[in-house]
Write a structure and sequence with these properties.
- The protein is of the alpha/beta class and 380 residues long.
- It has eleven helices and 13 strands.
- The strands form three sheets. It has a seven-stranded mixed sheet, sandwiched between helices. The protein has a four-stranded antiparallel sheet with strand order 9-10-13-12, with helices on one face.
- A hairpin with a 2-residue loop joins β12 and β13.
- The chain is globular, with a radius of gyration of 21 Å.
- Bound molecules: pyridoxal-5'-phosphate.
C-alpha cells in the first residue's frame, strides 16, 4: 500500500474521521485502525486460546524493533513503559546522584516532566527551571543554567501548551560538550517530527503512545543509550529483568544487559500490539512526509487565524513550529466556544492555559482546517 501519496486513502486508516473533525492529537489521540485491529486481535486470541499460541511476546520484540527504527536506536536500547512519567522516573531515580547535584529544565514543561525531578529534593538534588520568554525556552539561558553540578537536562521535544519545539540537535551538542546527560520527553514530537537519538545525542527518551503516535494510553517506549544501560540503576526490578528465565528456581540478581533490565513483570501486550501497529503505519507513511503535511495544515490554520485577527501563540519559525497551534482572543469566551465547536460542528479542540489549542495530524484534510476557520467567529 502506498499510503504516503494519498492522504484521502489514508483517512480510511483513521475511523475517527467518520465522526469528528478531530484536531486534538496533543491530548489523547484516536486509535488508528491498524492499532484498533491489533488490540481486537489480541483480545480475540486471548479469549479463544489464552496464552497457548504464545505469540505475543514475539510481537513485543517486533514492536521494539519498530520503535527503535522510529528514533534511530537499537532495539536493545528500548523497553516498554506504562506512561511517559514512568520513563521519566526511571531516569530520575536511576542516576547516581550526589547531594548538591542539579537538574536543568524549564518552566514550560508539562508537569509530568517536573514532579519526578522535584521528588529528588529529599536527596539534595535541585531542579532549576529556566523561565520561558515569549513562549520559548531561550537556549542561551538554558545553557547558562548548566553548571558544574548539573547532571541532567530534562526537556520536552515539543512543549504541550503552545507547541514550541526545542532544537534538540543543538541541545544535544551542548550537553555532550558539558558532559551532562540529556533526557527528552518526546510524547509531543513522535509521529510528527523525526527524532534521531544518535544525531541529537539523546541519552534517555520517554513517550507514551497516546498522542501523535495514535496508539492507546498505557503503552509507551523508553530509550536508554547503550553505553548508559549499566549505569542507570533500575528503580523497580522484577523477574522479567533477569537473564535467567522465570521457569528457573534460581534466585539471583542477574539483570539483562539491554533495556529489558528496567522491566519488572508482564507487559501490557494489548497496548504494545496496538502501539506497534500505529508506529508501523507511521513508518510506512514516512515521518518526513507526515511532518511536511502537518506543516502545511498548521500553516494554513495559523494564517487563517491571523486573517481573522486571532492571536497565535505558537512559534512558527522553521526550527520552532510543531503540530500544535495555540490561539486566543479577548473577544470571546473560549471555553464556551470550544464546547460550541464540538456540539455544533463536531470539531474537537482543547483549551489549555486560557487559550484554544488545535493539533491536527497528517490525516486531517484541508477542508477540516477550513471548516474550523469558518466556524470560528472573527476576533476583530
Ligand atoms: C509533554 C508531555 N509529557 C507527558 C505527558 C503525559 O504523561 P504520561 O504519559 O505520563 O501521562 C503529556 C500529556 O499531556 C505531555 O504533554
Amino acid at each position: 500500500m502506498n499510503v504516503a501519496t494519498d492522504w484521502t486513502a489514508l483517512r480510511e486508516e483513521f475511523p475517527i474521521t467518520r465522526n469528528y473533525n478531530f484536531q486534538n492529537h496533543a491530548a489523547i489521540a484516536p486509535l488508528s485502525k491498524p492499532a484498533a485491529d491489533a488490540m481486537a486481535g489480541y483480545a480475540h486470541e486471548l479469549a479463544e486460546a489464552a496464552y497457548l499460541h504464545g505469540t505475543y511476546y514475539r510481537v513485543a520484540d517486533r514492536v521494539r524493533q519498530s520503535a527503535a527504527r522510529l528514533i534511530n536506536a537499537d532495539p536493545e536500547e528500548i523497553t516498554f513503559i506504562k506512561n511517559t512519567s514512568e520513563g521519566i522516573n526511571y531516569v530520575a531515580n536511576g542516576v547516581a546522584w550526589i547531594t548538591g547535584d542539579n537538574v536543568v529544565s524549564s518552566t514550560m514543561e508539562f508537569s509530568a516532566n517536573v514532579y519526578p525531578w522535584l521528588n529528588l529534593e529529599s536527596r539534595g538534588v535541585t531542579l532549576k527551571r529556566v523561565p520561558e520568554e515569549e513562549g520559548r525556552i531561550p537556549f542561551d539561558r538554558l545553557a547558562a543554567a548548566i553548571d558544574k553540578r548539573t547532571r541532567v537536562v530534562a526537556i520536552s521535544a515539543v512543549q504541550w501548551s503552545n507547541g514550541f519545539r526545542m532544537d534538540l540537535t543543538r541541545l544535544g551538542e551542548l550537553c555532550k560538550e558539558k558532559g551532562v546527560l540529556l533526557f527528552v520527553d518526546a510524547i509531543q514530537a513522535l509521529g510528527v517530527h523525526p527524532v534521531d537519538v544518535r544525531t541529537m545525542n539523546i541519552d534517555f527518551l520517554a513517550a507514551d503512545g497516546h498522542k501523535w503516535l495514535c496508539g492507546p494510553e498505557g503503552a509507551g517506549i523508553f530509550f536508554c543509550k547503550r553505553e548508559l544501560i549499566g549505569h542507570l540503576h533500575p528503580m523497580a526490578i522484577g523477574y522479567l529483568a533477569m537473564k535467567h528465565g522465570f521457569e528457573s528456581n534460581e534466585i539471583k540478581v542477574d539483570l539483562h544487559d539491554d533495556a529489558r533490565r528496567f522491566d519488572s513483570g508482564v507487559y501490557n501486550l494489548a497496548g504494545i500490539c496496538a502501539l506497534g501497529a500505529s508506529i508501523n503505519l507511521l513508518l510506512e507513511v514516512g515521518i518526513d512526509h507526515a511532518q511536511k503535511r502537518i506543516k502545511d495544515l498548521t500553516d494554513r490554520l495559523a494564517e487563517g487565524l491571523l486573517r481573522k485577527k486571532w492571536m497565535v501563540h505558537s512559534p512558527r519559525t522553521p526550527s520552532e513550529w510543531s503540530g500544535i497551534v495555540s490561539f486566543s482572543s479577548e473577544k470571546h469566551d473560549l471555553q464556551a466556544l470550544r464546547k460550541h465547536l464540538r456540539s455544533e460542528f463536531r470539531i474537537v479542540l482543547a483549551s489549555r492555559l486560557g487559550r484554544l489549542r488545535a493539533s491536527p495530524h497528517f490525516y486531517n484534510s484541508t477542508d477540516e482546517i477550513d471548516q474550523l476557520l469558518e466556524a470560528l467567529p472573527a476576533s476583530s
